[in-house]
What does this fold into?
Amino acid sequence: GENVEQHPSTLSVQEGDSAVIKCTYSDSASNYFPWYKQELGKGPQLIIDIRSNVGEKKDQRIAVTLNKTAKHFSLHITETQPEDSAVYFCAASGDTGFQKLVFGTGTRLLVSP
Amino acid sequence: GAVVSQHPSWVICKSGTSVKIECRSLDFQATTMFWYRQFPKQSLMLMATSNEGSKATYEQGVEKDKFLINHASLTLSTLTVTSAHPEDSSFYICSAKGEGTDTQYFGPGTRLTVL
It folds into this structure.
């Protein structure tokens, strides 16, 4: 089955800096890669996603890149703000079954003012 | 759009009792709903997948007789934790997706504490 690894587990940056979180997946059949932001005590919130027919997607300060050959994808946050502080999860899914998501282990991002 | 609600947001119960958690898609029809549990500082672990009108599919190691799932309509799924024990204390989160889509929208979660 699919396995998703995520790095780093924690990331501390200064306000205004960029943050990059990386994930690798094992199943070459996976074709959908969402990123979720989870604040303490809340459910995950979808912030951006990418499908395998696209190499990069951007939404304001957030971008995701996908390298299908290397089977890895990354989340890029520019001009970080204290409110970006949260735990970020990557995930992967394919066309089989119910398109279940397999999650990475999470990255705790702390943005200091 | 794509709002998912859960009720209750938190619940405390005594050991041996049963607890029901509701998950509703408020503005779309959820043909598939998923139930996860999350322990502190850990990732989300999928428990089961349910499609409207059919039996749920449980992940390996999840007891189907303990975690009863009912997906009665296109907007409602329920998870019942039967004969709850302290080790069932966790954060339970549902997600929902519509037909023909791969995007899952998550509810706010339910914190269960079993005394």
About this structure: The longest strand of chain B covers residues 90-97. Chain B touches chain A through 22 residues (CB under 8 Å). Chain B has a mean pLDDT of 93.
